[in-house]
């Protein structure tokens, strides 16, 4: 190649890639320990959330059923059945709570006391009596406003009741 000859692209050659001067792997055992701890923490958080999610399955199912009841209180053909299902739903939720006391036989003041002990916020003083009257009272005598208030209190209790583990 002469000094006066123009540069040609075909004369270019690829450069050899040099080996990295520094390894990409961590050089101290501290990073491996930190990675191991991170894996353990992530596994524990996953396990705890999954356990909590599975333990609250009954609560999600009850809320879905309560939504079904709320949809059917305006339908005259299904109103009576929906009204009578509300006290039963709350009793089933109470039976699903992993508590030490027997819930199936509770009624009246004992049932009110149980609901109040497990409630996150105060319940009406006659909440259990109102629920019991729904089972026997003709559906025409129950006002929609009163029923909606009972459904609201029931939803709050189902969503936020305390569960002793």
What does this structure look like?
- The protein has six helices and no strands.
- The longest helix is centred in the N-terminal third of the chain and has 27 residues, at 29-55.
- The model has no long low-confidence stretch (mean pLDDT 86).
- It is mostly helical and 165 residues long.
- It has a domain at 57-160.
- The protein is elongated, with a radius of gyration of 33 Å.
- It has helices at residues 29-55, 57-72, 79-96, 109-118, 127-136, 144-160.
- Helix 2 (57-72) runs antiparallel to helix 3.
Topology:
Elements lengths: L28 H27 L1 H16 L6 H18 L12 H10 L8 H10 L7 H17 L5
Helix pairs in contact: 2-3, 2-6, 3-5, 3-6
Query: Could you describe the largest sheet, including whether it forms a barrel?
Result: none
Average the pLDDT over all residues and give the rounded result: 86
Low-confidence stretches: none
- The number of E-state strands comes to 0
* Beta strand %: under 5%
- Class from helix and strand fractions: mainly alpha
Question: How many helical elements?
Answer: 6
Based on Cα principal axes, name the global outline.
elongated
What is the assembly state of the chains in this entry?
single chain
- Fraction of residues in helix: 55-70%
Alpha-carbon Rg, integer: 33 Å
* Alpha-carbon distance between the two ends: 87 Å
| H/E series | HHHHHH
Structure described in brief:
The protein is mostly helical and 165 residues long.
């Amino acid at each position: 190649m002469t000094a006066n000859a123009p540069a040609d692209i075909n004369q270019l050659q690829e450069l050899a890639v040099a080996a990295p001067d520094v390894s990409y792997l961590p050089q101290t055992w501290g990073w491996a320990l930190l990675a191991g701890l991170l894996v353990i923490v992530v596994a524990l958080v996953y396990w705890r959330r999954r356990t909590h999610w599975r333990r609250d399955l009954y609560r999600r199912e009850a809320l879905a059923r309560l939504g079904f009841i709320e949809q059917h209180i305006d339908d005259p053909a299904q109103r009576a059945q929906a009204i009578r299902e509300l006290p039963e739903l709350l009793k089933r939720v109470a039976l699903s709570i992993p508590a030490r006391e027997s819930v199936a036989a509770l009624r009246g003041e004992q049932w009110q006391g149980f609901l109040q002990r497990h409630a996150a916020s105060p319940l009406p003083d006659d909440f259990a009596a109102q629920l019991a009257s729904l089972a026997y009272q003709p559906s025409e005598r129950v006002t929609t406003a009163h029923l909606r208030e009972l459904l609201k209190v029931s939803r709050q209790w189902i969503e936020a009741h305390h569960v002793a583990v």
